[in-house]
Amino acid sequence: MRSAIVATALVLTLGVGIGLSQAGKREHKHSVPLKYVTQSVSISPGAVDGQITFCPKGWKATGGGATGDGSGFPLLVNSGLVGKSGFEAIILNDGGSTARMQVRAACIKSTKKTRARAATESRIRGQLEARVKELRSER
Asked: Which of 1, 95, 109, 133 is least buried, going by the fewest C-beta atoms within 10 A?
């Protein structure tokens, strides 16, 4: 019984050791090109503002985010994908100094052609401006 436990432990130890040594040799690569696009926005103290970052023509947004540079006290009110090629963020600066935020979209090469892109971007920007205006009026 004791020799069976020792043998099992030995096999598990060797198996894990081999697995770990092989894991370091594998390199993970993406076959899909990935590009990040960033737009900045400055938000006055007590103000609400928004920014949309669009991927270049022929690219599709798959995600994104918003980060600050440490100034002001920015609060992310809402963020997410918009349309097929954009990422938006609405930010409230609840601090006493101007906040600077970067809104970033993660883009992959699109396999389909984008039609009426300019009209879509204009419509999306209009929707964002309307939401920001609504939030400003609530403050």
From this structure: 1
Which helix H or strand E contains 49, and what residues bound it? Answer: strand 48-54
4: its two tokens: 């069976």
The more confident residue out of 60 and 9 is: 60
Residue 101 falls inside a structural domain: yes
> Residue 57 carries which side chain, given as an amino acid letter?
K
Residue 15 lies in a domain: no
Instruction: Find how far residue 44's CA is from the centre of its chain.
Output: 24
The Cα 81–Cα 64 span in angstroms is: 8
Q: Do the Cβ atoms of 45 and 72 come closer than 8 Å?
A: yes
Q: Judge whether 99 lies within some domain.
A: yes
Q: Would strands 99-109 and 48-54 be described as parallel, antiparallel, or unpaired? A: unpaired
Determine the structural domain holding residue 54 and report its residue range.
34-138
**What is the tally of structural domains in the chain?**
1
